[in-house]
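We both want to read discrete structure tokens more fluently, so let's practise on a single case. Once you have written the record down, we can walk along the chain together.
***
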Amino acid sequence: MLKLVLPKGSLEKATLELFAAADLAVNRSSTVDYKATIEDPRIESVRILRPQEIGMYVSEGMFDLGITGRDWIEETGSEVVSLGELQYSKATSRPIRMVVAVAGDSPIERVEDLPNGVRVSTEYPVVTRKFFESKGIDADIRLSYGATEAKIPDIVDCIVEITETGRALRAAGLKVIDQILQSYTELVANPAAFEDPEKAHAMGQIRTLLQGVLEARGKVLVKLNVGDADLDQVIELLPSMKSPTVSKLHGEGGYAVETVVERRGINVLIPALKDAGATDIIELPLAKIVH
């Protein structure tokens, strides 16, 4: 039913791991095969292509559904329907940022301080040109084919680059003076395909599986038993997503309590629960959380 396109390159590993965790494992003959399959009745075919091109191909109807970054959607002017952000990326769950950077020892502190004719290197010439025009600066935009941060100061005066952690820019001795946009990975659909009720329903189901995995990441299910006298004290310790589920134990005094909590800090929480009177404490991993 759905023709799906997934990103190759820096997002590839994280994307394939996400789909596998969503029970939508991508099968291909080798890591360099651009064609793949997913054993799911909603997915007709899978291609793996560079994220720079995915927005355009989905917009043109070559694919019904795709995953790419907001940065490339904006750069290519692709007309797609966004089904929502998928908050994952190659290194962290943080979004990437498209920023303007100059040499660390430059007196320039703001984009507005840059002169007309400033030389700018970037892999995003369309977005960059629009940004500098919005600031009233006549910039000399130069397309970069990589190693953009290495071109300051002898080749260009500043760069427009994406960063997730900022580590590479700092290592190159650069400083950020402005942010153009923030970009998460997005699940996008072809507008005509999205108008098809059957396809739109299938797209929504795929999105539910992917979001369920992302929602579960970093969380665990905690189950425990507690006596009547200690219930309130135990409940106060539980930082739950919603109110904990509390059930009366059959045939004896006390309660069974379960809730979802962040894995971070579980090493402190479990001993504290035991100290507060909880017994039979179980920590369980979560595959998906669907609201």
